[in-house]
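Weekly modeling sync, notes
Attendees: S.R. (lead), two postdocs, one rotation student

Agenda item 3: backlog of single-chain predictions. S.R. asked that every request posted to the team notebook include the full sequence so nobody has to chase files. The rotation student volunteered to paste the first one in as an example of the format we agreed on. Action items at the bottom.

Example entry:
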Amino acid sequence: MLSPTPGYADTSENTQTVSQDAAAYEKKLELRVKELLRNVSGVGEVDVMIVLKSSSEKVIQVDNSSSKSVTTEKGNGMDRSVETMDQEHSTVLTGSGSGQEPIVSKEVYPEIEGIVISADGGGSASVQAEISGAMEALFGLPAHKIKVLKRVE
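Predicted structure, as returned to the notebook:
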């Protein structure tokens, strides 16, 4: 599977990196689909455009700890109970010094919003159905998010 590498913090530099990585991910997917369809009978030369719904997301590893204490005081015919709960969350880092980075526990790849394919054989209903079926199977997209067009020079 293709893997973009977006930044971790929400800074303008890292946001730009995320955008560039999403664009690179789109281009890699488009090239792979183009190469696949180019070798299918009746399709001919193709152009592919894939639009992503969002960028990828990295989920970082977090240590969670909590403690609870209950203090009960008795006196003068009254009982008083005090309950204290402390919670702490910290990001797990790897490396040392200023080269520390968070540990990524999983990466969620971007969802595909839609695909448009322009093919030499796109004027044929059977070729359109084959291409649409392949994209449905490959990306799990519903048919209304896939459009196959007749390519012209």
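Discussion: group reviewed the output briefly. Helices lie at 12-38, 125-139.
Action items: rotation student to repeat for the remaining queue; S.R. to check formatting next week.
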